[in-house]
Amino acid sequence: MIFKPLLPGVIALALVACDGVDSDSPLGRRQAIFKQMLATSEDLGGMLRGRLGFDEQRFVDGAARLDVLSRQPWQHFPPVREADSSARDELWQRQERFRQLAGDLERGTAALVAATVARPLEPAVLAPHVQRVEDACEACHREFRAY
């Protein structure tokens, strides 16, 4: 049957459409960026923790990508809370602290990129930088994300 190969794509599209978040909305845009950040960070951490094989060039590229991504989601937080946001109200009430934590992440990813300049890369040297990035993400989530 001609429609059978199209079925998985149609189902996937329907599931995405049903999540209720417009991909062009500020919420949709920042969620997409955060998902990319998570996937990239998981790959970097996976290489350092032995879950994935360590690939020097892939690590360098991932660190650079994470650094670029770390600067993007903040512009998609509107000045007033959206109804469907999973962030706590405190995010909009404590903007200065939110900006501070965003800056911590950006500084962490920049330091990670700087650590990838010296070759050959040593996982033991990179691990504290990845941990700093992970800690920055966790700190912001603890204060502002409603799980």
UniProtKB/TrEMBL annotation:
It comes from Azorhizophilus paspali. It holds the Pfam family Cytochrom_C_2. InterPro entries: Cyt_c/b562 (IPR010980), Cyt_c_II (IPR002321), Cyt_c_prime (IPR012127). Transmembrane segments: none annotated. Keywords: Electron transport, Heme, Iron, Metal-binding, Transport. This is C-type cytochrome. The keyword Chloroplast does not apply.
